[in-house]
Amino acid sequence: MLALALALLVMQAGPPAPPPKQGAKPKVDPGPTAYDTAKLFFLAGDLATAQEWVRRGLKREPKTCGPLNKLLAEYNFLANHIDEFTPDQAREFLELDRQISPAVRGKVTEKAWARFVAKPLELAQDQAKGGGGPRALQLLEQVLYVDPKNAEALALKAKLAKDAGP
Question: What domains can be seen in the chain, in order of their start residue?
Answer without folding.
Answer: 33-80 (no CATH), 87-166 (1.25.40)
